[in-house]
UniProtKB/TrEMBL annotation:
<protein>
    <recommendedName>
        <fullName>Outer membrane protein beta-barrel domain-containing protein</fullName>
    </recommendedName>
</protein>
<feature type="signal peptide">
    <location>
        <begin position="1"/>
        <end position="20"/>
    </location>
</feature>
<keyword id="KW-0732">Signal</keyword>
Length: 242
């Protein structure tokens, strides 16, 4: 081997450690993605209780007092993931608040100067599954999902300032029921991948989504007498995996 060839071979060997270091850096960057253990949802939508559809009820008290409009409702749901493979499954607990104001009525049926308020706190515990495998493995950003759960909804009605009146202008209670939800989420990571990686490394948020969902809920003490808080509603919101 000539002197020039020997020097060239030595120079080639000198570059090999640099290549190895580059490979290690890439592997470390990939491993920096934080583990995914749960999620949180923030959602908003209308809630129109089916009070007027209660069997044996005379008249339409909800429509008479509150018109034909829904309560504006906000909800937050915390989720825990127990399976991550071909999709993600787990359990979630949600709590919300909704209210609607209307005109109080005198005994004669004439509208009074006071205002009547209906307030609800929907609570639910559910099991869910979302098919996010296609989003993570195939790059399809749409994630369909479903939920099935138990619901409990405390409620109260007030007149005027909300204090109890002599004529019984306040009532309260709680109703049990069940609900099924179907929805679809859009994975926002595809719009700004670099921001999504920074969000994960800085805040521990693996993925973010916007979503729309439809809920069918029977909240009438499983067919028992009393206030019917069943509803059929759309909700929209933001979801985060962490």
């Amino acid at each position: 081997m000539s002197r020039a060839s020997a020097l060239g071979f030595v120079a080639l060997l000198a570059t090999l450690p640099a290549w190895g270091q580059d490979t290690v850096v890439v592997e470390e960057e990939v491993s920096l993605r934080s583990p995914r253990t749960g999620g949180i949802q923030f959602r908003m939508g209308g809630y129109k209780p089916l009070i007027d559809e209660e069997p044996g009820l005379s008249g339409t008290p909800y429509k008479d007092y509150f018109g034909d409009e829904s309560l504006l409702t906000f909800e937050v749901e915390l989720q825990r993931y127990f399976y991550q493979g071909v999709g993600t499954a787990g359990v979630g607990f949600s709590a919300g608040y909704g209210e609607k104001y209307g005109s109080a009525k005198l005994a004669s049926g004439v509208a009074a100067a006071e205002r009547t308020a209906l307030r609800l706190i929907p609570l639910s515990f559910n099991a869910f599954y979302k098919f996010d495998y296609a989003a993570f493995e195939w790059g399809i950003p749409l994630v369909p999902y479903g939920k099935l759960g138990l619901i409990y909804t405390p409620w109260w009605i007030t007149k005027g300032t909300g204090t109890e009146t002599a004529d019984g202008g306040r009532g309260s209670g709680g109703r049990w029921g069940w609900g099924a939800t179907g929805g679809v989420a859009f994975l926002l990571d595809v719009l700004e991948p670099r921001f999504a990686r920074d969000f994960d490394s800085d805040m521990g948020v693996n993925h973010s989504y916007v979503f729309a969902e439809y809920t069918y809920a029977d909240v009438d003490n499983f067919g028992g007498p009393g206030l019917n808080l069943s509803n059929r509603r759309w909700m929209f919101g933001l979801a985060l995996d962490y």
